[in-house]
Amino acid sequence: MNKTAITAAQILPVLADRWSPRSYDTNHEVTSHELLSILEAARWAPSANNSQPWRFSVLKRGDALHTAVAAEGLSGFNQAWAPNASVLIVVSIKTLTADGKENHSAPYDAGLAVANLVTQAHELGLHAHQIGGFIPEAIKSILELDEDLRPIVVVAVGKVAPAEQLEGPAYEREIQPRTRFELDEIVLHGKP
Question: What is the residue extent of each domain of the chain?
């Protein structure tokens, strides 16, 4: 399925071609080298004061934690498609800085790390889908996360499969074209 972005100016192909499928090949396994590459890309993201507040829980399909997070930690129709992904990566943030203060930049910093992770996955021929529909308390309990860690997103990673293996709302969303607001709608000042 071609979902290359139509842009007002040329952007890197890895960014233009990246999209977030819900249909994953249930026979594909992400290799250790691919996981290492994806996590290294995330690790080298910038962060305020180099605090690196992100933490990753890598759950491979077939493992007990993958099964538990997919069944009890995801909400809505995410439970129908996400278990097929080769890997679920739970991204958590450290909510406090080293001196015990609230880390206000942690969500932004982790977002930069996830952007690197998703882009690197695509560069490797994989696809990633960021899942906001999850139950933080359930995931925190399943993964036995420390008190100062807060899950902020689950990222499904794997090889894309035909949309026809999905049903209902997941299928409908899978076949829709990629869209974004026009630049005129989101650039408030200094429009090119």
Answer: 13-161
What whole-number distance in Å separates Cα of residue 74 and Cα of residue 68? 9
Residue 54 · residue 73 · CB < 8 Å: no
Question: Helices marked H in 44-130 — which ranges?
Answer: 64-68, 78-81, 106-123
Which candidate, 56, 75, 50, 28, places its Cα nearest to that of 114?
A: 56
N- to C-terminal Cα separation, the chain: 32
Q: Looking at domain 13-161, what is its CATH homologous superfamily?
A: NADH Oxidase (3.40.109.10)
* pLDDT (tens digit per residue) in 62-91: 999 999 999 999 999 999 999 999 999 999
Question: Is-above-0.90 flag for pTM?
Answer: yes
Q: Which two tokens stand for residue 82?
A: 């996400």
State the Cα–Cα distance between residues 102 and 98, nearest whole angstrom.
10
What are the two backbone dihedrals, phi and then psi, of residue 69, each rounded to the nearest 5 degrees?
Answer: -65, -40
Query: Tens digit of pLDDT for each residue in 133-189?
Result: 999 999 999 999 999 999 999 999 999 999 999 999 889 999 999 999 999 999 999
